[in-house]
Amino acid sequence: MFCVRTCSGLMGLRAAPRVRSLHSFPGITIDEEVAKLLALKAQIGGDNVKHQFVLKTAKGTRDYNPKQMAIRERVFSTIIGCFKRHGAETIDTPVFELKETLTGKYGEDSKLIYDLKDQGGELLSLRYDLTVPFARYLAMNKITNIKRYHIAKVYRRDNPAMTRGRYREFYQCVNDRRILDGMFAVCGVPDDKFRTICSTVDKLDKMPWEDVRKEMVTEKGLSEEAADQIGEYVSLQGGMELAERLLQDQKMCRSKQACAGLSDIKLLFSYLQLFQVTDKVVFDLSLARGLDYYTGIIYEGVLTQAGVAPGSTEAQNGTPAEESVSVGSVAGGGRYDGLVGMFDPKGRKVPCVGVSIGIERIFSILEQKAEASAEKVRTTEVQVMVASAQKNLLEERLRLLTELWNAGIKAEVMYKKNPKLLSQLQHCEESGIPLVAILGEQELKDGVVKLRVVASREEVDVSRAALVDEIRRRTSQA
Amino acid sequence: MFCVRTCSGLMGLRAAPRVRSLHSFPGITIDEEVAKLLALKAQIGGDNVKHQFVLKTAKGTRDYNPKQMAIRERVFSTIIGCFKRHGAETIDTPVFELKETLTGKYGEDSKLIYDLKDQGGELLSLRYDLTVPFARYLAMNKITNIKRYHIAKVYRRDNPAMTRGRYREFYQCVNDRRILDGMFAVCGVPDDKFRTICSTVDKLDKMPWEDVRKEMVTEKGLSEEAADQIGEYVSLQGGMELAERLLQDQKMCRSKQACAGLSDIKLLFSYLQLFQVTDKVVFDLSLARGLDYYTGIIYEGVLTQAGVAPGSTEAQNGTPAEESVSVGSVAGGGRYDGLVGMFDPKGRKVPCVGVSIGIERIFSILEQKAEASAEKVRTTEVQVMVASAQKNLLEERLRLLTELWNAGIKAEVMYKKNPKLLSQLQHCEESGIPLVAILGEQELKDGVVKLRVVASREEVDVSRAALVDEIRRRTSQA
Questions:
Q1: What is the value of pTM for the model shown?
Q2: What region holds the Anticodon-binding domain (chains A, B) (predicted)?
């Protein structure tokens, strides 16, 4: 089950000029006016209607301008192309769910959920991820077998520090919850400490081992011996051979579930070989994802870059590229075989495995790339601008425009009555329109159109009848 | 400024089996456990953690399954194609705005806005339309010139009755706020009654004139003479010639703004002639859109059908097709030259004109059409299924699958170790996969793949090297 989330929580405050909000009161009956004023007063909770407010987007949210959208859509089409290549179908679920649908699924993170105000209806919350709504969808529709992708925004009440900067490589690290739990068991971690020790291990991408060990021993009350044994394991990274080695490991073998996890890792790597991607995947015993609902394999997609970028985290304990710095996880997921059962009346389990791609970080990197490069990002797909050299040809321009539109050509005209030819050409250069169809008295008399190539400034007369094909031919790449 | 809104508020309650929500409590320290329990208790506001709840989507919202998504995406691509043909660029804004950004923009409708709970941050509301956030965006970014489209969901706390059924025709009716106000003035409506009388006129698509007149006189206290004069005007429908006739109308001429509006209608129809769409547009003096912010031309796209469908409204007073029934407005908009100024510190005005398409109604009609027709809606784009006739060929299937994926072919494989050939073929027929690439011992020995056309059951041996091109050739239509 793939999903792509564009998580609100990308940006902080915007430049915020002070603005007076004006309220117009068209003539209505006194009663209505009073009622309206009272409602308004209640709404703004103030005594003066003309109050000051800050012109901004909500904290943690942002607008996307046309350039940013063009980049975002490029990212999406790449991702969607991949999903479709693998035969996925897509679904959509509402942006908010019943509050209780989300309750008890996220552990500590629950405090980051946006709740809707109780306006006399149901208690609602904005979705925190796409996984829980998906599990709700499966249980509600009794679906036990689907390969779906879902692209949507999720809402979290935090402001993650965004890392930008050119990344050096992408790789994935893999682990298995059962290996972690088995490892804890054989290292002598008391059962009731598994989860909390797990969440400490999870910090290894942000803290050096020494600090993690300290937290385990002093804060979590783990024995030094247990901590050191864990330390040996979580420093391990490799592939198939590591899984095989650990399957021979005297201590590890004592845990049935660790063995089950290791055998699955082995099987996974045999598939990865067939898929020719072993060089991109690392079996990493220090990987421990936060969310409660994972039951088997877990993985993360990580971007690394040379040099520390502002806001980026410390070098992860032994990432493949030595001095490389993690730009953080851009994707993550795993197996969650218990979640759907939480929604099923009879608790019937539906095994699920999925990945979620956090689009913002990828987007912000590509956005910066585009800024850096000279490449001009087009925000429209207009193939031809219908222009005129002389005055009083608005109607002729609109007539030609209609011909082109009806033929499926992406065409535009300037909305002025008598625009200067120069300003029409400038508009083309600014917005990357490759062709201009120029109309003049002479052209109209001759039944032709002067077709100008903006880049080369080459001009050719094309008969009106042949224009559409000529435009198609010249923009077939676009 | 085009926008497409998929408005939540489409469906009522779903079938709702009772479900017990299970909460797992992995071993954590007592303090943490207590804290977690308290938080949880607070969240569900109950004393028993294992409480009952209804498995459903929030009232007024719905899921989209893969078939519905396929139809929805077809609708979107048609609409987006039209926007792009006309040179529009796209933007995106957050799903919620500061509450005060929406305050005082919707008049009566404000009560339908979803507010977010005050969780110690800013006061937020879910967007009610895409127009006000767009105006906020323009003011914030000091944009005075943009041709944008925006496709997104908006949120309204109501449950519109959905009309389904095959529609007979689509047409647009057009009017101008200035004509309405001018008409009211010359008919002797007191200034302070313009808006309220306007909202009564707005009901003409749901009530016969007699009832509308009654409301004007008895409820709104309008004189019978004034009401009857309005009655004559609002019954008028036509095109260019009607605008010309009214410009000669002794009474109408007394209103400057009515004349301004009528001249613009005339100009509009001169353009509509050039665009060859006069047959689809009706100048209708009874059209009066609800929202406050329109300042000039207003219009609605209307679907009509023969026979009354459940929940559909009464025949509109004199729609072109006589006994036809309005399926209601599927699009609407107009000019709003004042809205951006409400956000600008100096109140600078930015003239805007736009249309909003309500996708749900269009979607539900097309969905019903698809159900009625034999046409099979594909939910994936898979070109070929990699299958095997014998056992123990999983690895060979995955190897071929990888070859195809790397070549950009949309391919799929069944996840079973040894699936039956029949079940593999059945999956293709069910999901509309046109080709099957069958591997067997013999094919592997001969370095070929048996390519089967699902529809015709024709089978040909294709050399492994030529397979990709052969698949491309045979699915070039798809």
A1: 0.82
A2: 383-473
